[in-house]
Amino acid sequence: MKSIKWTMSGAAILSTTLIVALLVEHGFSAADDARIIPTTSATSAAATKVPSDKLAKTSKNVRPGQMGFTAEREAAALTFVRQHHPELADLLTRLKDRRPQEYQKAIRDLFRVSERLALSNEQQPARYELELQEWKLASRIQLLAARMSMNGSPELEQELRGLLAGQLEVHRQLVKFNYDRAATRAAALAAELEDIEARKAALVNERYQEAMKAVGAKKQSARPSGPGKSAGGVKPAK
Predict the structure, then answer these.
(1) Most exposed residue of 60, 77, 100, 152, measured as fewest CB within 10 angstroms of its CB?
(2) Which of 27, 34, 6 is nearest to 136 (CA)?
(3) Which residues, 6 or more positions from 49, have their beta carbon under 8 angstroms from its beta carbon?
(4) Are 36 and 147 in contact (CB under 8 A)?
(5) pLDDT of residue 122
(6) Distance between CA atoms of 61 and 58, rounded to whole angstroms?
(7) For the chain, what are the domain ranges?
(8) CA angle, 235 as apex, 234 and 238 as ends, to 5°?
(9) Burial level of 209, CB count in 10 A (0-12/13-18/19+)?
């Protein structure tokens, strides 16, 4: 049986390199638990350096309305990420002043994710729950992988493997959900195809009768009244 490559759902909001840079800039390092905790200035100084020219960018370099970035979309995106991944929201707050262009791109991406999930929730709530859980796990995995690149440990590796296993299970459930829906749709199409093959002549006759009936009704309604007659064909009284 051919092996199918499993890929994480959705594009990354921030690159791993950028996440590491943000953590370094603000004196953060990997911890044994799931939180990001402050480190000493010596630890921060020993970490990867970020080019000063990139740190010099400020929000005045980017127009607020550029490429669909609006205050309303920003508020919606931040509300979404604060609710579903607070750690990522903290990084975005630091990103806003330091790297405004990348911040706006991240906000646009997050807004698209929140809108897609909101639509999914309206149309298929069961699928929405799986898609949301998959996104949350993917976001946590990305952040944890960035922390591991700074200071890996057996505990973090175990945590990352646990998150990946959880995401794979959610992805399996999502694939199963899609498969079941597709199978139901395929069964309905197969039944319709079988009916068409078995009743071709009868179906053509039915469509013919319907078409002629519709034409007859149109002719009847369009037929003008004769001279000196009412619409019902009776001469009016003198």
Answers:
(1) 60
(2) 34
(3) 24
(4) yes
(5) 95
(6) 6
(7) 16-184
(8) 145
(9) exposed
* Mean of pLDDT over the chain: 76
Provide DSSP, 13-40: SS-HHHHHHHHHHTTEE--SSSS-EE--
Instruction: State whether residue 10 is helix, strand or coil.
Output: coil
In tens, the pLDDT along 69-115 reads: 899 999 999 999 999 999 888 888 888 888 888 888 889 989 999 99
Q: Render pLDDT for 28-38 as a digit per residue (tens, 0 to 9).
A: 544 433 333 33
Residue type, 126: A
Amino acid at the residue 24: V
Q: Is 233 left (phi over 0), alpha (psi -120 to 50) or beta?
A: left
Question: Residue 229 is encoded by which pair of tokens?
Answer: 């007659």
pLDDT tens digits along 3-23: 555 555 554 566 666 676 666
At 80, list the tokens: 């979404």
CA distances 220 to 55, 141, 209, 231, Å, are 79, 70, 16, 12
